[in-house]
Amino acid sequence: MDKIRIVGGNQLSGQIAISGSKNSSLPIMVASLLTDQKIVLDNIPDLTDIKTLIRILKDLGSDISYSESDKQLSSIRQLNRRVNICSKNLVSNQANYEHLSKMRAGFLVIGPLLARTGYAKVSMPGGCAIGTRPVDIHLTGLRKLGAEITIEEGYVIAKAKNGLIGNLIKLSKPSVGATQNLIMAAVLAKGETSIVNASIEPETSDLISCIKKMGVQIEVRENNNILIQGTKNITGASHKIMADRIEAGTYAIAGCMTGGRLELTNFDPNLLEKPFEILRDIGCSIKVNKNSVIIEKLVSDLQPIKITTEPYPGFPTDLQAQFMALLTQVPGTSVINERIFENRFMHVQELVRMGANINLDGDKAIINGRTDLIGAPVMATDLRASVSLVLAALCARGETIINRVYHLDRGFEDLEKKISNCGGIIERIK
Ligand code: EPZ
Description:
Blueprint: E1 3-7, E2 14-17, H1 22-30, E3 38-42, H2 48-60, E4 63-73, E5 76-86, E6 94-95, H3 97-100, H4 110-117, E7 119-123, H5 136-144, E8 148-152, E9 155-159, E10 168-170, H6 176-187, E11 192-196, H7 202-213, E12 217-221, E13 225-229, E14 237-240, H8 245-258, E15 261-265, H9 273-282, E16 284-288, E17 292-297, E18 306-308, H10 320-327, E19 332-337, H11 347-353, E20 358-361, E21 364-369, E22 377-379, H12 383-394, E23 399-403, H13 406-411, H14 415-421, E24 425-429
The structure holds ligand EPZ.
Residues 23, 26, 104-105, 128, 131, 133-138, 173, 175-178, 199, 203, 317-318, 340-341, 383-384, 411 line the site of ligand EPZ.
């Protein structure tokens, strides 16, 4: 199994072009199941989660091809990866445990598959171990649209022999995946569906924007209410995937932790308003341009902070672990309250092994800074936890070896290349 070796202490300076968003690409690729016409998607990142989803879609019968072309982004050259998907001839309506155990987003196929074919058998999902992560909100919503659902031998079996029928669905929590699943199911349902207390994360908005290009009337109203007019006339579309705001936030923190002057390009800084506000409160300098930001650490007078994870536009849980690594370098006591997932502190024990002083109290982590971090062998436990260890290692003394790198490969494109181009010492050990 690959490992990553990092020698800390170097400042990161230079430019990093932000890749396409994983969490936007996945539901949008699944939306190709809604139509028998071709969907063309640009800015798809090269990640194992994308490859896993391609396998799931191919097993269902989707015809998928890719092409790559050089694109010039400011002074950086980057590949644009285009994925063409045509799901005209579906051959199966079953998504197996083998793939779903690796990636939770595969469960999103249940909504569109059921709506299109009247039947779907989909394995209960796996993914990052950050909580129990049930799928009850997805299933309650599908039942509201008229589906009959049973769970047998680890599989969810959903049937709607006469098609789905639009309805009012009130989500008990603004679940990102359930919102996306139900939007896709409702697109092919008869009549109007209103999803109340929906997730309006930027990635859900990107999905909605692609589905609109497919000819569907869909509207986001006040109070996180999404209104969908069901239709059978769904066309193909071309869509460019939004940039990955979590990748951008992660490198912004890398810039703050290591000093230097880091320019992040090719993304919309408005999507990181809350995290940037917090970085400024801590004492980092962030200059926001239209599609880029420049990050610099202010070396003196860093301030501790309190952070609570919340649905967008609040502070994202997917940046919680990375901020915790940063807060180990801030004098005073900072507190992070994790409100989205009940078990998303797996990085704490590894950061402590590197010298951090962090105590857990239920859903709160209390970080006492500033502590010197010292390189150590550490183990990645989930995607964002893994990258928090990369950040800690970049400003630690000595060498850190990060094990279980496959988590990082699920969500960070060209991580070693992007960091080493800016002066970080990082290499993959095969
Ligand atoms: C999405 O996961 C993201 N994944 C996650 O990113 C992200 O952390 C999360 O949203 C929150 O922003 C993708 O987009 C592929 P949820 P999702 O349903 O959809 C509970 C990453 O690192 N819940 O909004 O699975 C659930 O247990 C990943 O890229 C139910 O109780 O998240 C959690 O506590 C990790 N029942 C909360 O809701 C349900 O049926 C939010 O989960 C569904 C969810």
